[in-house]
Amino acid sequence: MSMIKALSAIAAMFLIAACSNSNDQQTASAATTSVAPGTVGDFRQNVGDRVFFDTDASTVREDGRQTLNRQAEWLKKYPNYQITVEGHCDERGTREYNLALGERRANAARQYLIAQGIPAARLKTVSYGKERPDPVGSDEASWARNRRAVTALE
Fold first, then answer.
1. Counting Cβ atoms within 10 Å, is residue 20 exposed (0-12), middle (13-18) or buried (19+)?
2. Which of 112, 105, 103 is nearest to 65 (CA)?
């Protein structure tokens, strides 16, 4: 009986090791896989889909302008996408205040893209205020990542 248990334990260890190697290989493969040009993945990975804002502000910063310039060039190259610019805020402030601030942020990014030659008809906005944090957290690093406008492709 103990021989069966020992063999079962050894078999289980080999199975776990095999699964672990397979997962490691899949993870390594996914990390080195490039995305196809003109896809949503290409936009997110190679262009950047978000710009960040200062506290209580909706003015596009210099780093945001650089990202929006890249977005505009990519969107001109791939005109088949409709775009929704999502406005987001950190968790501080009232729901109503953050919905309004998120709308101002989304509109600031939208107006910048229009100024770069993207047709207004391709762009719509939505504000999620503080309702969709990414990441969740109550510290300055989390708040900074949540003060954003995200360009989502449809």
1. exposed
2. 112
Domain borders along the chain are 2-153
In the predicted model, residues of the chain with pLDDT beneath 70 are 1-33
Q: Return the pLDDT at 30.
A: 47
Domain 2-153 CATH (choose: 3.40.50.300, 1.20.120.910, 3.40.50.2300, 3.30.1330.60): 3.30.1330.60
Instruction: List, for residues 40-62, the tens digit of each pLDDT value.
Output: 999 999 999 999 999 999 999 99
CA–CA dist 66, 49 (Å, integer): 12
DSSP secondary structure letters along 77-99? H-TT--EEEEEE--S-S-HHHHH
At 10, is the secondary structure helix, strand, or coil? helix
Cα separations in angstroms, 122 against 54, 107, 110, 111: 27, 13, 10, 12
